[in-house]
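Ticket reopened. Same input as before:
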Amino acid sequence: MEEKSKNKFSIIVPTYNERLNIALLVYLVFKHLRDVDFEIIVVDDGSPDGTQEVVKQLQQLYGEDRILLRPRPRKLGLGTAYVHGLKHASGNFVVIMDADLSHHPKYLPSFIKKQLETGADMVTGTRYVKGGGVHGWNLMRKLTSRGANVLAHTLLWPGVSDLTGSFRLYRKSVLEDVISSCVSKGYVFQMEMIVRASRKGYHIEEVPITFVDRVFGSSKLGGSEIVEYLKGLAYLLVTT
Amino acid sequence: MQLCLAHKWIAEQFIIANSMKHVVKILTLVVAITAFWIGLLQTSVVPCSHTWLLPIYFIVSLGCYGLLMVGIGLICFPTCPQEALLLQQDIKEAKEYLKRNKIDVGSD
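Engineering reply: fixed in the latest deploy. New output:
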């Protein structure tokens, strides 16, 4: 109980043109995390739609110590967005989630609870177990996802069920350690993070999450993504 | 003394295995299986004609395993249509709250 009271969670949310979603997300985070010390760090990559103005209004409402706006001048990639947000994080735990509400803040308490129960260094949200799930994917998307998963599990033996999900909680020092050795981009970045964390011997736990794709078909995988994925897999085989 | 040395050896092997790149681990496995197969060929415990076909069986069964796993994964793919409805409710609730607090998120 004592440990619970001194934990602070920094939620890093990279955004690009998410003026509506970031406001919805902030409301839902505050709704679901009532007795927890946390801050939301918005890393906005110079959205032209006024995302930053909305975040400033939210700061007025919730307080500038609870919502931190740490913008960057232009689109600089997801991996470096986390590094950037991490520099400003004051919590001893860091949560990484997407701004588009495919990751629902209602799962945050289960991440925190799992960490507290197990003392894990990293808690990762998984869509592929009981209680988890995906909505809004067509058959082709499901097929590529399953194929990619079986391939990665056969070759890498990572010990976790969902490699490419990006809804995760890290001990801050662990995220700093792992992220410094990651170089990949896109889907492979999430996979590299968890494989490296697993190889370094960090304690990883999983909680079920659901993933709702609101823009139907937005996350379809093309041929170039599949090639990138296979290259990433080969890269992880020889470097981890 | 001997036991102590054995323990140390095992510990060392463990450290080596841990620091091995993953591709080396897989190659080691492949080499071990190949060595076993050559051993079978040399000693002819089972008829040679069968032993020659073993690698093909191995590759075919590996392929079957992959297809089976993808198939099972597809059939049991967890979906959550009710979550999409719940999310719509949450979005509505959030929009009302934001409107009350005069946060302009646009018309969409």
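The interface with chain A takes residues 18, 21-23, 26, 66, 69-70, 73-74, 77-81, 83-84, 87, 90-91, 94-95, 97-98, 101-106, 108 of chain B (CB under 8 Å). The radius of gyration of chain B is 29 Å. Please confirm and we'll close it.
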